[in-house]
Amino acid sequence: MTVRKNQADLTGTEKRAFVDALLELKRSGRYDSFVTTHNAFIMGDTDSGDRVGHRSPSFLPWHRRFLIEFEQALQSVDPSVALPYWDWTADRTPAASLWAADFLGGSGRSRDGQVVDGPFAAAAGGWGISIRVDGRGYLRRTLGAGGRQLPTRAEVDTVLAMSTYDMPPWNSASDGFRNHLEGWRGVNLHNRVHVWVGGQMATGVSPNDPVFWLHHAFIDKLWTEWQALHPDSPYLPGTGTANVVDLHDTMRPWNDVTPADMLDHTPHYTYDRAA
Amino acid sequence: MSRFTRRQALSAVGAAAGLAVIGAAPAVGSARDRAPKTPATPHAHAASGAFDEVYLGRRIQGAPGHGGGHHDHHGGGWTVHIDGEELHLMRNADGTWISVITHYEPLSTPRAAARAAVRELQGAALVPLDLS
What we know:
The complex is a heterodimer.
Chain A: E1 3-4, H1 12-28, H2 30-44, H3 59-77, H4 153-160, H5 177-182, H6 190-197, H7 211-229, H8 259-262, E2 270-271
Parallel strand pairs in A: 1-2
Helix pairs in contact in A: 1-3, 3-7
Chain B: H1 6-15, H2 17-23, H3 28-31, E1 51-55, E2 58-64, H4 70-74, E3 78-82, E4 85-87, E5 89-91, E6 97-99, H5 110-121
Antiparallel strand pairs in B: 1-2, 2-3, 3-4, 5-6
């Protein structure tokens, strides 16, 4: 059974296994297919048109399915690997062990933002950036640049307290839990973390940085925490909504999975601690 | 999902032909070392909000509307170029803007999104749109 752990609690052996599986997916070309899929959706999802992966109610079930698929790819390399999550309310500085050279490596150098330590640095040779929106072929980060701050636990709790899953117009203008968690409104949780990391994480090709998966694994865990707090609050909308994935509509690109299929994570993985 | 080919993307750039060709002149190779300059045509498009300026050594141009297609839908009717290459732009429901370079941080205008992209690029060239 897959148990997703807080990244801060991983052993050295677990970190090494996770990194090695990432590098193997990259080498085989499978990793970049995930980057391509994410960018296609982020550029295709619009507030006034079809929207599936982002700025819509299916942001959460879509990313849950996307992470499951990615985790299964990792496990095809090493069955012992599970996706860790990054609780950025707790591990909130560039000095966190997450960014050490034995795990994801640190921030980029000031000249060009290039990450120069850890297994994903260009010099290590295993992490070229080929699915890209500009000419730079190396991983970049600007952790906390400009004095930006990651969300606090108190800010997370204000969002978890919102009892309605999502609301019309079901996009970046919506009130409710989903859009506040995604960050287009209010204190801004998910979007702000992408911006705090900087580099490719701030762009449409954000899965180029392996921290993408740890960030979204925590967003996914927050959805579970919200469900535990609001057991009577359903996924919305229920039916008949134009341009939006209703509860029993299938989601692209898989076309065989609905939000209803993704509401319970426990057939796929559990967590190291209670939600 | 909306899809468009590289050829369509290039023809979209071509639809803004006059501006795009001129925009290619300040070559990417020299962009890094150029100091900020005053706008190239500061008064040309004031009414529409269109812009055409050199920002941190890069030619940035934006205008509402072009020949049609993909970006009339995604870009809220705007097309923006950096040194002649189209920047994928998106308008949010509240009227703010993001680009593929700064996709999680809404800004108030297409020009602000273009300038943010220039700062983020640090002299690097945009890769031509290609989702096919």
